[in-house]
Every structure is written in structure tokens, then in C-alpha cells.
Specification:
Two copies of one chain form a homodimer.
Chain A lengths: L16 H20 L6 H8 L3 H8 L2 H14 L10 H17 L4 H8 L4 H27 L12 H18 L8 H14 L17
Chain lengths: 216, 216
Amino acid sequence: MTDDPPDTTPGRRPGGRTARVRAQVLDAVRAELTESGHEGLTVEGVATRAGVHRATVYRRWRDVGGLLADVIDAAGEMDWQPPDTGSLRGDLTALNHEIQESLVVQPSFAVALMAASYHSAQAARAQTQLWADRYAQCEILVARAAERGELPAAAQHTDARGLLIAATAPLYHQLVLLRADPDPHLPERAARAAVLAAAAGAFSLPRQERENTATS
Amino acid sequence: MTDDPPDTTPGRRPGGRTARVRAQVLDAVRAELTESGHEGLTVEGVATRAGVHRATVYRRWRDVGGLLADVIDAAGEMDWQPPDTGSLRGDLTALNHEIQESLVVQPSFAVALMAASYHSAQAARAQTQLWADRYAQCEILVARAAERGELPAAAQHTDARGLLIAATAPLYHQLVLLRADPDPHLPERAARAAVLAAAAGAFSLPRQERENTATS
């Protein structure tokens, strides 16, 4: 890397040409992905669309897996904030609406990425990391609900991740796996079901697992 | 089709040579899928492994999408019965254990099929139909729970599909989308959360939706 010209050295001058080239290339990856899926994705096609020299793309991203992983990493760098509506049910409903929108928009970049991650181990790892980060960010919803007294007495020891997955998994299941038509009521219903289960103690952790909780 | 020799005519003599050829070919598809995923799947490879003439495979299944769709259809023809343990929580837990096993076995045929269905519209349709059939079969679990009085008064008007998806979606979410390590407690926990939500009325249908329920 030290022999590279400075303007293409990864990590250098983040606001300069390096960042601009990355933005152009990742925009091109997103456009190619949503237009024709990851199967049509090639380093050459991305370089041409981005107006960047092929050698630059190969040097920095190596292959399609590297491009996919970086586009997923870039999604994780976005300044995303979980909703804050004042109630757990409201927060989870808002979150589910966001998820539903990202999955039903045509063409869906989110769905294209999920499909792509089946075919690149590097992209799959990046995707797994992004999911983990997003769920970790959302644990604040459960902590706030506990502070507001919306959860049962055991709430400060709630399995926040389990609750978040219960609330959101039906959306992905219906839209990504079952390929069902979007149900406009599902975001609210899935959120409500998770909150009712939580209120009934479904996600209260047994004493020995408390140290693993991130909600305190 | 009418010009085909009788021994390769689809639908003819189901217990005879046609059925034998289909079994050989579908076994070969399953073996190729689990060994190298759908990306390595070719009509030629399947024909060679099955010991069947390529022309036969092309005539009957046309292409890789046709092979995938038929292997999914064949899964739907299996004499599968939903669990019957005597309680809704027990039934859903048993169902989740079955799902978890099918997803964590290495290599997983179920996961390979899901990945493949992103790349063949015909396979995707077959997969969607299989899911729909399986969930329809499982609605009996909810009907039995209602008969046993395990659900609230509104239970005979429960959204059985919604309840089943709430119970099972976290398994798929964790294992297929998040690619997490299997959690031996998740089958029971996800089942329990869905049952608690159901008991709290999370899946009770408003009066006007009762005619859509399949649980009565």
C-alpha cells in the first residue's frame, strides 16, 4: 500500500479524493445491485459506472465480495438513530415501519444485499456485523421502556435482543422468506405482540443470565 | 409431450419408471445443492450424477429453475405432520426444534434451497407455496389449543398464521438472516413468547376479520 499514489491509498484523507472515489464506487455498486442484483455485479461494470479506473477498484476492493462488504460497512456508518416515540410499542412500530419500507421498495437494496451475502463470505460477515450493530443500537428502546416502568418488575433484566428480534422477525419472515405482500398492519401488530409477551415476562432473564444483558 | 416415449412422459405411471427417474434426478439435485450450493447446479451435472440422459432432464425439467422447483414440490409431497404434544407451547417448541435442526445441519438443504430461490422465480414460487402449505397445516395446532381452552375467550377467532409466524420467525431470523450460532434455548423461548402474547390477546382478530380465520 505504501507504493500507491497518495490519492488512492485507503484510509488517507477521508474528506478528499479517497473519500470521493469511495462514494462514487459505492454509489455504482448500489445502482448495479438494485438494477440487476448481485449476479450482474462485476468489478469492471462498477468501475465503468463510477468513472473510476479498474485498477483502482481492484487495488482497493479486490473483488465483488470486497465491494459488497464495503457497501454494507458504509450502511453501518450512516448516522442512523433508533426511533424515540415515548413508548416501547410506538418505538417498535416505528422501527417495523422503517424495516417494512426498506424491504418493499422496488428494487430493494436491502433485499439485494441479503441475497448477495449468500454468495460472498466477506459480504456475509459484513452483513452479520451490521445487523449486530443495529440491534445493539436498538437495545436503548428496551432500556428506556424499563426506565418508564413499561416492563414488568424483571424488566431491568430483560433479554433486550430477544425482545427486539421477536418484534422485528415477523416482518423479515413475511417479506423476505415468505415473499408475502406487505401487510400494512403487520408493523404495529408484531410490535404489539412483542410488547404483550414482554409484559407477561417472556423476555425476563433468569438470574444467572443477568450479566449478559445490555439493558442496565 | 405426446410424442415422448411413454416412460418419460410426466405424470404417467407414477410408481414406474417415470417416478424412478424423478427420484434419481431429485436425489442428484439435493446432493449437488448440499455439496456446492445452487451456484454449481447444472442440468448436465444433475444428469450425470443421476445416471439419466441429459435430454430426459431437459425435456422434463427444462432448466435449473425447473429442477429446483420440483425438488421443493417434492418436499411438499412428503407425509409431514405437525407435532401433537398436548399443549400449544409444547407443539410450538417441537416445531421450532424441527426447524432449528433443518437449518443448522451442515450442509443444510433448507438453507441451500432458500438461497437458490433468490435466483429462480420458478423456485421462489414453489418455495412460497411450500411455506404457505406448511403454515396452513400447522393451523391445527392453534385450533387444538383453542379447543383445549388454552387461548383467551377470543381464541376461536385467533389469527393462527400470525401466531405461528411469531413463534417460528425468530428461529429463521437468527439462523438464516443473522447467521448466529444456534441457541439451544431459542426453540422453547420463542414458542413461550408467542404463547404468552397469544394469551394476552395479541393474535385475537377484530370481529370483521373473523371470516378469514382457518381455525374454526
